[in-house]
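Kindly draft a sequence, keeping tokens residue-aligned:
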Amino acid sequence: MDQLFHAVAIDGPSGAGKSTLARRVARELHFLYVDTGAIYRSIGWYVLQRGAALDNAELVAALLPDLNVEVRYGEDGLQHMVVNGQDVTDEIRSPEVSAAASQVAAIPAVRAYLLDMQRNLARTHNVIMDGRDIGTVVLPEADCKVFLTASDEARAARRCRELAQRGTPVAYEEVLSDMRRRDEKDRTRAAAPLRQAEDAVVLDTSELDFEDSAQALLRLIRESISHEA
């Protein structure tokens, strides 16, 4: 009999805390955390390195046959992104790469290229996977679907703190403007737009601190998994 694995899909807009919360909850549940945003960032980084126009879908698609993206996990359980043998985990966290990731993520050929990789991780592990189309496209049969969100202002403030901690501070007004622009792109793109799955539970963390958000997410996941058992 095949082993049964559980899958948790967490979707939501940029800066909602998906990655930090999913990573924390996955550690507590002993699930594999899959940061799909990092995967798209890796492709964005690669396209930038090759000097191709990010808004030219044909040129970007032409680069894919020579691209090998791997998701690796260290002994600490942290996800590392490897592009053609090079660990780019740190390099992909710049604002420039973030913007590039948003553009390449709108290209159908890129999403198709990554779909099997993401689904295979869910077939072979208990996973918590976050992104923008996990519950709607990547893992439509996930045991638990959560749409994680927060107000624009709360998300921008959190992103500012994150960038400052990484030593790359950006003005709040610029972060807020970029975030709203990215939200609009994500919602209106033709390929897998950002939207809430019909059977997803909404978790708004605007008024919650990190610990309260983590506990609320844990409760939702445990309740869903217990119902599936």
